[in-house]
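REQUEST FORM: STRUCTURE PREDICTION
Request ID: SP-0412
Submitted by: Lab K.M.
Chain count: 1
Length (residues): 121
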Amino acid sequence: MEFTNLFEKLITKLTDTVFPTFIKKRADGAKKIEDSARHKGMYAILTAYHFAGKVKPYADALKKAEKQDKESHFKEKYKEAYDKLKDIDSLSQKDFQMITGTLEAYGEVYIQAKNPKDYSK
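STATUS: Completed
RESULT:
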């Protein structure tokens, strides 16, 4: 019984560190791509908008990382972004890219929160 409790504590600790690390690494990568695309300018600006759309979701995910209801929160935010895409005729290129970046980030953190995996290996 003691081994089982120790194992469960270890898994919880690993899960608690893997999820925030996942978010931070994804956020850092998105910022790097956004900055590079902004620097290139012209047609690459759409890529910058897409990756800029990930900033807010990743920051939100870090705040929610330790919360019990994080999965339902991320799924709701994903659905909100998805619903915004339904009226594509009203969207500008910038709007579309920002929303798809948001959708992608919330999808990533939702899936990772549901099934934590360490991608560093």
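NOTES: The chain has a mean pLDDT of 90.
Reviewed by: T.R.
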